Each structure stands twice: as C-alpha cells, then as structure tokens.
C-alpha cells in the first residue's frame, strides 16, 4: 500500500509515532504473523529518525503488539484491537495468580462455549474440529500439547461471536502463559483432559449450548480443584 509521507509532530513524539504504527497495522488489515515494513521504510513514511522508529517498535514489542525477530524483521504479534496486552514486567510464578486465572476462565469460558454452540457457522465448527485434532496429535509431547490445548480454547472463544470476551480470554491466556504450562504439569491426567475436550467439541458442534456450558464449567472447576490441592496440599 502506498501512503503519502506525513510528519509526526515533535510533542510526545514517541506516543504519536506508536499510535501511527498501530493505526497502520489496523488500516492495512495486518494480522498476527504479518511482516511490517522495515524501520527505515517506517522512518521515511513518518519523517522521523530510524532510532526513533526502533524505540517505538520496542515499546510495541513490550506490550505484545509486535515481535522483533533478529535478522528477519518486525511482525504483528497480537490483534491491535485487543483490550489487554501482555505485561512485560513479569513477576515470578505466583500460586495465587494461577488460582485467580482459573477462576476467571471459569466465569468466562462456559458462556463462550454455549455461545459458540449457538452462533458458529458450519465452517467455523469445522475449524474447531481441526483445532481439537491438533490436541490429539500432540498428546505425547507436553510443549505441543500445551499450545494445542490453548488453541482449542482460543478457537471456542473466537467462535462465540463476542469479540470483547474473546479478546479478554486471549489476553488471560497470553498474560499467564507460564501459569498455564504449570497447570498442565500439575493437573497431570492428559488423557482425561483430552476426553473432556472431545466431549465439549461434540456439544458445540452438535449445537447443544447448555451441555457445552455445563461441560466447560465442570472441566475448568475440576482443573481448579486438582491444581489448588497440588499447590496447597496441607489445606486440601
């Protein structure tokens, strides 16, 4: 896309430049994984110095909006319409944060599962089936299984038709990626977890919203109980 050169005013230069880059991502319809123009091209487009562009991109990387790949370029990492971005100042793994995360998901995801059963198109339901098949293929490898499981939950969120809630779920998953990995280790029963995911898939694709809601609620509650006991064996 050819854009005319537009200078960025000096006051609050970095803030304005950061906003311009985000606006470009939005206006050009760039999606996660798409490559941005080079720092030199962006500097020419916005009539600023290359180091200023690089500083703005580092800001965006810190929020999780873009990813800087050494020797490759800058890539969109998250949907710029996301309500919440990843906090770059991560603290150490916190057991309380793990329980808070599970409680938040327990409130949000049953509604999303029911909405997906009602609202998803046939093509979207086929997409969910593919997402579940990836979890089947990854059962023997924890790293792949974690990614596939989170992909399954993300897909249900997207299919629900509520962009705000889907974005909140995406952000919860991204914000607490380390906790999610720890949950997989603590929960332990990969086969049972997979069977429950299969039952949720069947309820959603069978367009049975209340069953999808109940299964998702039971699933997340079960995980929360097991993880809470593992984190606090004396109080279990």
UniProtKB/TrEMBL annotation:
GO MF term set: DNA binding; DNA-binding transcription factor activity
Keywords per UniProt: DNA-binding, Transcription, Transcription regulation
The UniProt record lists the keyword Transcription regulation: yes
Keyword Thylakoid tagged: no
Domain HTH gntR-type positions: 11-79
Gene3D superfamilies to which the protein is assigned, alphabetical: GntR ligand-binding domain-like, Winged helix-like DNA-binding domain superfamily/Winged helix DNA-binding domain
Pfam entry (one): GntR
PANTHER family on file: TRANSCRIPTIONAL REGULATOR, GNTR FAMILY, UXU OPERON TRANSCRIPTIONAL REGULATOR
Name of this chain's protein: GntR family transcriptional regulator
Organism: Asanoa ferruginea
